[in-house]
Amino acid sequence: MSLLSNNTLCKKFECGTCGKIYKRHSGLENHILKVKEANIMRPTVYDLPEKAIEETRQALVYHIKEKLKKNSRHVGGVRIMVSCTESQFFGVFKGYIHDYYPKTGNYKCIFKGVSSYHTLSNVLGDDNWGIKYFSQQQQTFVLSYQQSPNPNDPDPLQEPDPLQEPDPLQEPDPLQEPDPLQEHDPLQEHDPLQESLQDQNKTSMHTAKKRRIYKPKPIQIVIC
User: Fold this and answer.
1) pLDDT score at 3
2) Is pLDDT of 216 > 50?
3) Is residue 137 part of a domain?
4) What's the pLDDT at 59?
5) 90: exposed, middle or buried (C-beta count within 10 Å: 0-12, 13-18, 19+)?
6) Pick from 62, 110, 138, 174: CA 20 to 30 A from residue 82's CA?
7) What sequence ranges are listed for the domain C2H2-type (predicted)?
8) Which domain range does residue 21 map to?
């Protein structure tokens, strides 16, 4: 899938993979450059042998098929989380990484459109990665693309990205702020014991933060 999509009528430049729109061609070029940089292995990532990469692919296919249930009540969106090393992740998805978030260490791959299932078949090395067969010729499968009746409607399979970092320019929701017109209940008495317990909880939480040792977490592959 090409990253470059030029809309000459509106004079906008769109990324064919993630759908981001830029007013200038230079903005799209910078976006494509970031995508290429996200696929460059950093010094902490090791080039694994093909056998280890193939075992990671098989593990991913196994966890995907584990979520394919026979009962119709399991129909719908499913999220799969698989822990692996960063080297294993790069061994499988290198070349298909679309974004990298340095603050959280998260990678993002996007597979959508008519050819998304075929693309993942190449990535995972298994044409039946999204199909599970049962007795009596029954099967459950992954629906990676669904044509919308109205082209202007959003993709019904698209869900909020759990790896997306918050937008610092986004304003807070005023509906979630405390109401300044809300009156204080005169019947509600001040509880000195509750205040004492709150102070103790703050002290214990502060001590726990000092003693907490942060260890690097393994990479988690989230498939939605």
Assistant:
1) 61
2) no
3) yes
4) 94
5) buried
6) 138
7) 13-31
8) 1-38
